[in-house]
Amino acid sequence: MQRRVTFDNRLLPYLLLAPQVAVTLVFFIWPAANAIWQSVHLQDAFGIRSEFVWFENFTNVLGDPNYLDTLKVTVVFSLAVTVLAMGLALLLAVLADSKIKGTRAYKTLLIWPYALAPAVAAVLWMFIFNPDIGSFGRALRALGYDWDYRLNGGQALAMVIMAASWKQVSYNFIFFLAGLQAIPRSVMEAASIDGAGPVRRFWTITFPLLSPTTFFLLVVDMVYAFFETFGTIHALTQGGPGKATETLIFRVYQDGVVNNDLGGSSAQSVILMVIVIALTAVQFRFVERKVHYS
Amino acid sequence: MKPTRFIDLVPHIVLIVGVLIFAYPIYVTLIGSTWDSGTIGRGGLPLWPGGQGATNYAQAWVGEAGERAMYTPVRTMMLNSLVMALSIALGKIAISILSAYAVAFFRFPLRMAFFWLIFITLMLPVEVRIIPTYKVVADLGLINTYAGLAIPLIASATATLLFRQFFLTIPDELLEAAKIDGAGPVRFFIDVVLPLSRTNIAALFVILFIYGWNQYLWPLLVTSSGDMETIVTGITKMIGTGESANDWHIIMATTVLAMLPPVAVVVFMQRWFVKGLVDSEK
Fold this sequence. Notes:
Largest sheet of chain A: 2 strands, antiparallel
Shape of chain B: globular
Number of strands of chain B: 0
Number of domains of chain B: 1
CATH topology of chain A: MetI-like fold
CATH superfamily of chain A: MetI-like
CATH class of chain A: Mainly Alpha
Helix content of chain A: over 70%
Low-confidence stretches of chain A: none
Radius of gyration of chain A: 24 Å
Order of helices and strands of chain A: HEEHHHHHHHHHHH
CATH architecture of chain B: Orthogonal Bundle
Mean pLDDT of chain B: 85
Strand order of the largest sheet of chain A: 1-2
Oligomer: heterodimer
Structural class of chain A: mainly alpha
Strand content of chain B: under 5%
Number of helices of chain A: 12
Helix content of chain B: 55-70%
Number of domains of chain A: 1
Order of helices and strands of chain B: HHHHHHHHHHHHHHH
Largest sheet of chain B: none
Mean pLDDT of chain A: 84
Low-confidence stretches of chain B: none
Strand content of chain A: under 5%
CATH superfamily of chain B: MetI-like
Structural class of chain B: mainly alpha
CATH class of chain B: Mainly Alpha
Distance between the termini of chain B: 44 Å
């Protein structure tokens, strides 16, 4: 944790830390503390007095069937995005890593979607699947399928899942490819000589050796699906139709910013904080394991 | 040479399909930006470029009123996004490298307390503290300012952890030699640590620039006036509810321009980009 040799200076380290600590206190710790404080208080209509109400905001939030629906949407959405993004990325990475020509070109052509904002990815998908102007959207209708994600909740959910996974594949691809390239060729060659075919080699050698990468990406993708897809949903469906694509994070925004319900929104924020802390803790256990193995 | 079997082509076919899945939406947008809104609105967009490209981009760039609405000019939104992305990237790097230097190279009371204070921000993404953070920014009078857009996003544990990790690999001998030569901490930082960190700074810059450019929820909250609009939030405001009677030609041209800077950074700085991505997640 600490170097053996260090500088001796009383004031300087504090000065060096000051900017980051100031920003952290003002924009992170203070607002987070505020969210926790708000979550156990109820404000009157004028915002003048607030009353300590224990866990009333939490029981209200968790007892609200709408919130449980939102939770269900979030779980379905996150799992679908994680599975799709990881599955497709793994397939492409395994193929790009095999001894074929043009690996570098494929790599360049597959990693750039990382640069797109989730909201921009959503807009691109809209250009294609919009029932009025999109080529695929119109084709679906021409085939007699009643496609309109602006009216049909299931279709809307499918749409945000596809747009969100599409953007996340490149990130997973980069990490899977790095993981694959770290597997020693000699192990694969030995298995090859022993007569194991490509499919068997994948399941008995590649997949187990990739497991730290897979596990890491699982956590990262869950965090992405939970928090960073706000832009995707906001740009594409605004949480609708009805509440078909409203995830937890979208609801915090909706309740806090649009509906101005401070206590409820803060209670939701605190619930989300608990989720992030849990995910981060899981991620750090993984980091320790990786350090241990290498 | 043995003849090419079909099975050998399978990886190429799958990879090409993969590449097409990612390229097709971009292609459609590029083509769309060269046609008029009528053609796009009727859903009759051809697969080849039209002749309206120059007009559309010029119109989007200066924000000339479309057929249906007035928009913030793309040049204003691009400038806002650029200032925001650069401030976030450079600000984060600056404050993180300083704090990591303090934590790694000094021994002082409360060192670990400060380290944990910084570390804890990992668990507080902006999304979970939206309203109270907005309130702080509003109380400080930073709504609709560049400072309000950038400063709340520049504290992050990831960059500090990355620099600290790297600083711990700098050999003690180097520090001892510097001390014998009479170099103080400031000299050592400027002459030794900064040059050694060049690669890390470049890699981190690429990642943070993209992170800053692509911010969505935060700019949506802290900007309310058109001349502070960033380009990513600007696009969705132009689309509104996605009716077919939008100025699609301007929207598509704007989308192309919004993608350009981050994609260029990834493609041209690919080496730094992959390094930055893999390192910052360790």
